[in-house]
Specification:
Low-confidence stretches: none
Number of domains: 3
CATH architecture of the largest domain: Alpha-Beta Complex
Radius of gyration: 27 Å
Helix content: 25-40%
Mean pLDDT: 91
Largest sheet: 5 strands, mixed
Number of helices: 10
CATH topology of the largest domain: Adenine-n6-DNA-methyltransferase TaqI, Chain A, domain 2
Number of strands: 24
Structural class: alpha+beta
CATH class of the largest domain: Alpha Beta
CATH superfamily of the largest domain: DNA methylase specificity domains
Strand content: 15-25%
């Protein structure tokens, strides 16, 4: 491959001639492991904040679900206290995920993370963080991981990481440009979280009758699900039987893994796994029609016990409900199809599912217990009005999430250009 003028070939690829490649160890004061463990008695409700691998996100520190250390115990690890602009790199979970320590957490501690203390006369902390989190930086971690099921990276390996290094002013300019995109992403994350909270509050009010939409009054009905639906099981097929050929197949794992409350046989057709078998082998009760509700019958945690999706299948495509699913087909027209997307998401419904579920490590609800769950609901016109309000909220959220994904893609493209020197920024003195 011909290298264009002004560039050179290096161990990290082609970079500008005025850039250097240095091992991470030469750019940092220290690379070390944080506090490896602490006795239970050392933890407190308050004290010295303790960050773990799950707190380290790509580019930022998530201060949720924190542990705190007894200050007296922490004193024995004073040489490992964090400073602002230090980098924290996850050793396990998602090895290589890196963030910069903000001033707010000066003197905090870290747990089983690799701490790199950049020499700020040579390298900008934010630039280094962006590079480690970049596609090129993460390749190093993928190649250097050790261990079996729990992959990890050690300090010795991290020290050898090669880093392409522009002059310090250019590092800062690159970090500023990427930081602006990070700020936009952070703003979108906060807005999405706020909109989700608003939607959850609206659902709690509207789906329980605590708040009524204008023009509606009257008592709600209360019925058991067994009065509203007929229940049946799905057609069992293993994941390795699925492919891109055949009829649409709804696997319980795809319900657990989805954040959507409905699945559209037309709009989602390309993403839905397929099972290539003759339809005569499938019971008509396991073939999904428009408005059917499909519940999972097994979950590894309480949150997944009531997981479900509502099927949209207006063109009557062959759609098979699969392994570990319970199909609910409407016996009456008392529940509007659009309303079904929301009415099973209330805390009251979830609590009933938990009450009727059985099992220890894996909990589940049976076809004999799910009909016992009770649901209160308004008239169909009020159901439709409620569904319209909540659908509008979903549409707004989907638009924001799409904007966030486009912004993330823009950042990745910028990182690929700026952190390799393919695109240079003009540095104004």
């Amino acid at each position: 491959m011909k290298i264009k003028p002004g560039y050179k070939q290096t161990e990290v690829g082609v970079i500008p001639e005025d850039w250097e490649v240095k091992a991470l160890a030469s750019l940092t004061e220290r690379i070390m492991v944080g506090i490896a463990s602490a006795a239970t008695h050392a933890y407190r409700a308050k004290g010295v904040p303790m960050f773990r691998n799950q707190n380290i996100k790509s580019g930022y520190l998530a201060d949720v679900d924190l542990l705190f250390l007894d200050p007296e115990f922490e004193k024995t690890f004073s040489n490992k206290r964090l400073r602002s602009d230090d980098l924290l790199t996850a050793r396990t979970g998602y090895p290589g995920t890196t963030c910069v320590v903000p001033l707010l957490y000066e003197s905090a501690q870290s747990f089983t993370t690799l701490i790199t203390r950049p020499n700020t006369t040579v390298v900008d902390s934010s630039f280094l963080c962006h590079y480690i989190n970049s596609e090129e930086g993460q390749k190093f971690f993928e190649q250097g991981q050790i261990g079996g099921a729990q992959k990890n990276i050690n300090a010795g390996t991290l020290r050898t990481m090669p880093v392409p290094l522009p002059p310090l002013p250019e590092q800062r300019a690159i970090a500023e440009a990427l930081g602006d995109v990070d700020a936009l992403l952070g703003g979108l994350d906060r807005l999405i979280a706020k909109k989700r909270d608003i939607k959850q509050a609206a659902m709690q009010q509207l789906l329980t009758g605590q708040t009524r939409l204008p023009g509606f009054r009257g008592e709600w009905e209360v019925k058991r699900l067994g009065e509203l639906f007929n229940f049946s099981g799905g057609y069992s097929a293993s994941r390795d039987q699925l492919s891109t050929e055949g009829h649409c197949y709804l696997h319980y794992g795809d319900i657990h893994g989805s954040t959507k409350t409905c699945i559209d046989a037309d709009a989602d057709f390309q993403e839905i796994p397929k099972l290539d078998i003759p339809l005569k082998r499938v019971s008509s009760a396991s073939l999904l029609d428009d408005g059917d509700v499909v519940f999972v019958d097994a979950s590894e945690d309480d949150a997944g016990t009531s997981k479900h999706v509502v099927v949209v299948n207006k063109n009557k495509k062959p759609f098979i409900s699969g392994l570990h699913t319970i199909v609910a087909k409407g016996r009456t027209e008392e529940l509007a199809h659009d309303y079904r997307r929301f009415c099973f998401q209330t805390p009251a419904i979830r609590q009933q599912f938990l009450f009727y579920s059985v099992g220890t490590k894996v909990s589940g609800i049976s076809k004999s217990n799910i009909p016992k769950v009770t649901l209160s609901f308004p008239s169909v016109p009020e159901q439709t009005a409620i569904a319209e309000v909540l659908t509008d909220m979903d549409t707004e959220l989907a638009g924001l999430e799409q904007r966030r994904e486009k912004t993330r893609a823009l950042k990745q493209a910028m990182m690929q250009e700026l952190l390799t020197g393919r695109t240079r920024l003009t540095i104004i003195p």
